[in-house]
């Protein structure tokens, strides 16, 4: 299923943005202090959104793993936003239950009848639900909606281009990949790294690009790949080349560039005879 789900992203992102007028009042308003949380892929979308909203000066936006919401600080936020495809992830539901009754709480999910605590405003992106355990289009559609709410148009043409982008032999053969981002693309780098681990059991890492030279670059060597989402810091490509690793960057919108990384994860899984829809030790949602 995952290939079809990846390919449907341009259409899903458009549909997500079309939902905006109907759900705008459930999403953060300018100036609100916002906490956004989730687990796994959903956490990384939360991280991307938080950095983007902060960069646009629209208000304090903190992203948390749902299990790590700092206890006692709930009242520092005007609104909490949970991202959860399944709507059943235990940590997410527990985090929502803990929030003060007065807090505005929104959940973005793919499932209309998810057991999300009463009082939560639910935004359902049912067209983006998935049959694969590995998340691709739900997560990016949630981010497309959140980006649209910040005034960013859906990167339609780039998303379509990303589906045709050639996966090079260097990428297909790399024994290790380090994904890098800056600002909102750090969440995308985390997500790309998770995708390749989940689907292909590949050794991947992810960092803010400026952190890369503070240690992680020491594993760069021939046969390994460093992949940058968004504009690279000066000198990064040269430093990676000097270490002998391959380097990948793109002028695509970074969310579209994530599609290329998803396709690479699936191609790597297929090449190893793995079923990317059924990653090892994972279930559709983690219910404790
Ligand atoms: C969150 C999640 C997924 C992961 C796996 C287990 O699910 O961590 O990101 O790929 O399927 O669950 P959800 O809360 O978004 O449904």
UniProtKB/TrEMBL annotation:
Read off the PROSITE patterns from this record: SIS
Describe the location of the SIS domain by residue ranges: 23-160
Q: Which Gene3D superfamilies match?
A: Glucose-6-phosphate isomerase like protein, domain 1 (3.40.50.10490)
Q: What is this protein called?
A: SIS domain-containing protein
The species is: Actinoallomurus oryzae
- Highest lineage ranks of the organism? Bacteria, Bacillati, Actinomycetota, Actinomycetes, Streptosporangiales
């Amino acid at each position: 299923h995952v290939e079809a789900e990846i390919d449907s992203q341009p259409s899903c992102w458009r549909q997500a943005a079309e939902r905006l007028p109907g759900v705008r009042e459930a999403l953060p308003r300018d100036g609100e202090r916002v906490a956004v949380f989730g687990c796994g892929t959903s956490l990384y979308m939360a991280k991307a959104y938080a950095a983007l909203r902060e960069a646009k000066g629209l208000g304090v936006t903190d992203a948390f793993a749902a299990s790590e919401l700092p206890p006692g600080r709930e009242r520092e936020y005007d609104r909490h936003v949970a991202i959860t495809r399944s709507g059943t992830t235990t940590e997410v539901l527990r985090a929502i239950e803990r929030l003060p009754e007065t807090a505005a709480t929104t959940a973005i999910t793919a499932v209309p009848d998810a057991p999300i605590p009463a009082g939560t405003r639910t935004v359902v992106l049912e067209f983006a639900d998935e049959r694969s355990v590995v998340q691709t289009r739900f997560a990016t559609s949630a981010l497309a909606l959140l980006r649209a709410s910040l005034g960013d148009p859906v990167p339609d043409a780039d998303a379509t281009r990303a589906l045709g982008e050639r996966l090079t032999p260097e990428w297909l053969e790399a024994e290790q990949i380090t994904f890098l981002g800056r600002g909102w693309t750090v969440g995308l780098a985390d997500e790309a790294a998770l995708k390749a681990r989940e689907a292909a059991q590949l050794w991947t890492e992810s960092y803010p690009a400026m952190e890369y030279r503070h240690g992680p670059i020491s594993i760069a060597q021939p046969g390994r790949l460093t992949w940058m989402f968004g504009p690279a810091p000066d000198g990064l490509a040269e430093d990676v080349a000097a270490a002998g690793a391959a380097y990948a960057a793109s002028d695509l919108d970074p969310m579209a560039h994530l599609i290329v990384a998803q396709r690479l994860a699936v191609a790597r899984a297929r090449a190893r005879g793995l079923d990317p829809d059924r990653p090892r030790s994972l279930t559709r949602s983690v219910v404790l």
